[in-house]
């Protein structure tokens, strides 16, 4: 009945064979992993790198490793690798801490760079941590938060141009996978004298970001989704070089000091991007992230994007062909679709659990979204079709209505 889709999947997988990086990952047999937008899969080199860091570096070389294994420099060194992936020239990215902490830092720094301006724009559909952290910073610096979706921002900014200190948006909506116009909103912010701050959690490693070209001021992102750095991987922060001198770190930890080992009683920030550092970095996690990023060696993010678009396009088409009445909320337009396909359904949670029982790992986002994350390096068009067929069987067999799925796990 749907044999044409098998043929198409085979053709597309042949066409895109050059960007199939599955051999660079460890994935369990029998699992179709559509949750790389939550926790990326395990890259092959990570286990050995972490073992070496534990056994030889920590276990044998002990405290010398801060120098001999360059632990101290890891945040900036790994930052340079991330910089290439997000379109930043060297010297503007450091890695460490969490996205939430990094967001706190860039919001505070932005407020200090735009004294006297009292508004900040944020998307009401932002990932909650972004809004929570923003509300705390706003209370501290005296900002009023205006909830304006990113596509309305240019119009809003044109009207309120003297008041807006910053726009604080996500590049890709975490629920729908909608890609916002990062360059356009950044220009509109600048025209209004405001700064442009972006959360790249759902775009770093999935699509070209081109931070420098777009003139972005400050940005953050996590290491555990499309960068595959592992659970709790360190986050990153980007400070455009023109702002380095005025970037005031609200968390004045000693690792951001110009001379940490001078042990001076006064804080004096480092001249370079390491002024964004805080305290002692999570070295084991940094080692894991650094090893994970080798997946991108010799890989152009544009080629990852081309593969991802083909996969998500095919996934959308297969859903629409095979699942009667399916409600796909991710944009049909390639330019507006990130690396996931979201489906709305009133029994979304049951669907995610029933798919999981069949070896298809996706995730649920309240209130009614099944997120099918498509981490292009390790997925194929055949995987897309397999997932859709499993969904058809779940729905036909009413497996998603199993009472066992009425109770939600702690992490959905
Ligand atoms: C857009 C976005 N920002 C932030 C976070 C999480 O922040 P943290 O790394 O501090 O947990 C997520 C997590 O999924 C996210 O999707």
Topology:
Elements: H1 3-15, E1 25-26, E2 32-33, E3 42-43, H2 46-61, H3 65-68, H4 74-85, E4 93-95, H5 99-113, E5 119-122, H6 128-141, E6 144-147, H7 153-159, E7 164-170, H8 182-191, E8 195-199, H9 211-214, E9 218-221, E10 236-239, H10 283-292, H11 301-322, E11 327-328, E12 340-344, H12 348-357, E13 360-361, E14 363-365, E15 369-373, H13 381-396
Parallel strand pairs: 2-13, 5-6, 5-7, 7-8, 8-9
Antiparallel strand pairs: 1-3, 4-10, 9-10, 11-12, 12-15, 14-15
Structure description:
The chain has 412 residues and is of the alpha/beta class. The chain is built from 13 helices and 15 strands. The strands form four sheets. Strands 4-10-9-8-7-5-6 form a seven-stranded mixed beta sheet, sandwiched between helices. Strands 11-12-15-14 form a four-stranded antiparallel beta sheet, covered by helices on one side. Strands 1-3 form a two-stranded antiparallel ribbon. The protein has helices at 3-15, 46-61, 65-68, 74-85, 99-113, 128-141, 153-159, 182-191, 211-214, 283-292, 301-322, 348-357, 381-396; strands at residues 25-26, 32-33, 42-43, 93-95, 119-122, 144-147, 164-170, 195-199, 218-221, 236-239, 327-328, 340-344, 360-361, 363-365, 369-373. The chain binds pyridoxal-5'-phosphate (PLP). Pyridoxal-5'-phosphate binds next to helix 5 and helix 6.
